Amino acid sequence: MDSAEELRRRAEELRSEIARHAKLYYEEDSPEISDFRYDELLRELQKIEEEHPELKSPDSPTHRIGGSPKEGFAKVAHEVPMMSLDNALSKEELKSFYDKLCQSLEVPRADVVCEPKIDGLAVSLVYEDGLFVLGSTRGDGYVGEDVTANLRTIRTLPLRLAREVSGRLEVRGEVCIDKEGFAALNAAREEAGEPLFANPRNAAAGSLRQLDPKVTALRKLKIYLYQIIDPLKYGVKSQHETLDMLRELGFPVQGAERLCSAFDEICAYVDMWAYKRFEHPIDTDGVVVKLDDISMRERLGATSKAPRWAIAFKFPPEEKLTRVRDIEVTVGRTGILTPTAVLEPVRLSGTVVQRASLHNQDEIDRKDIRIGDMVWVRKAGEIIPELLRVEKSMRGPGSSRYVIPDVCPACGSKAVRLHGEAAVRCQNTACPAQVRERIAHFASREAMDIRGLGDKIIAQLVGKGYVRDFADLYALDAGTLSKLDRMGEKSAANITASIERSKSRPLGALINALGIRNVGERTAWELAERFRSLDAIAECAVKRQNDLESIDGIGPVIAESLYVFFSEPHNAAMLERLKAAGVRFSLDGAAKSDRDAPFSGLKFVLTGELASMPRHEAAMKIRELGGQVADSVSGKTDFVVAGASPGSKYLRARELGVPIIDEEKFIDMLKKAMVK
Hints:
By secondary structure, the protein is α+β, with helices and mostly antiparallel strands. Strand 17 and strand 18 form a beta hairpin. Helix 16 packs across helix 17.
């Protein structure tokens, strides 16, 4: 496929095909192709657009993958304020609202539309001639934040409208995360030792406000629309017509609305959703009641905070009393020991609850939870069981404080709580509960860069007992790999070649690959530059921890993490096997002066999107050549490398007079440095 016309035609075919399959998968729940085939189509389109930028389209599904991280959100002024809704907490308050509505309109009964209230984040979307151009949060109602790049990653959001609409169209809706996605997200955060989201709304808000759109893209957000700004302009006269037009334009709409003409009909709808909400895939914390007739809304107007023509009826939280039968501990992929309360079964929010995470020792101590206690339980966001408080008036004699064990239940190694952390962790990298995810990190591009070693292959290697720690990877051969499911001889040979190449990875990459707690990529490279060998780091960590703490940028937390890692016998044995396998443990030319490195003494700052490589890869190349990579621009910065759409770092560099080089000049510097 060489001609420009063939490429253009193929790109258009791919966009259309991908959009159709996305709709089947995300909206109609009836996929026709596998996830693998979908990804293949997306990668083909991405390759065409990367190699031929003139073929890029603003409505391309490749925008959903996520671009480069932003350095902040621009402010967006709302032409029409995004108002909140007043709440009704009882049927009496709801009746009062409906009566006032009828009185103000001087009618005996008013038609209203009832919709389930989504517990998410309100957003405003702007389309120009049918193309999505701007998305913003509510903010304070008058000024929000520009989250356009993040909204593009939401699969159900149309980047181009289903039918032509000329000029500017503004619509509003709610970004949310469904119950299944919320549970999976919190489970992953708990495994990683990160704070949990309290409810789906917090999860959606936190995901949409990520500075890195790639993080947002992984969160599987959804969006539902319910409002058109200036609807009369389009001949839309009511709320139910609004929802119909939104559907025609290709927007996702909840589809659970009901037109009610009397208060008893409203109550029937509210009562139905009081139970139906537990089975609904999206968390709903109430029902929104809106006057249907849009021209009548204008007669009623609004207060300074909320419209007079709508209200949100909020469901009361459901809490029940049950007993803690036992407390069990499980080991996550990062070694965290997580305590879980085993409860006497209790029906809550439509399902039977028998277990609830207690998160960590601090949480147990704060709530004073003991085996045998009667406790109040609810579902956070109607999804995740949460132990609220102990009913101490019902506590029996003989209860005792529970303490998480200091021995890993999965492997018997010592479990420790590091300074400043709430989690208790197993430090044994060979612990079977942790191996799979550690191997995945070890093989990642930012670490040992073992191409072809994906999650499914790693799962098989660990499950069959071929790989128990990092060193086992270097004992694999093509014959062993070819025994795995769907593994051909060529693929096996490619993986073994990639494993062999990884032996010569830079020391900073190896330190990062080990996954030492609190030692991220930057710290790993700084340790490599400072000590120049893994053996020197290990010796200092174990024998001279105070010396390690005194190093600028290390401190007591990282020093303790290094001590715990290198003093663990399983880890020490694994490192010896890595060295015996030929993995590079030191910087080349370790005896030479640091001044011999081509970029020695140079400090770089990266900003904007690089076309030739990801920014983390550019940072790695700089460090391999002896340079430093900083997050912020200062008078000590030597070069700012500016890619496409640079941020505030670019402006700061101009203010300070710091040399700014484009990507072409940066690549030229790399090439010249590598031949020295």
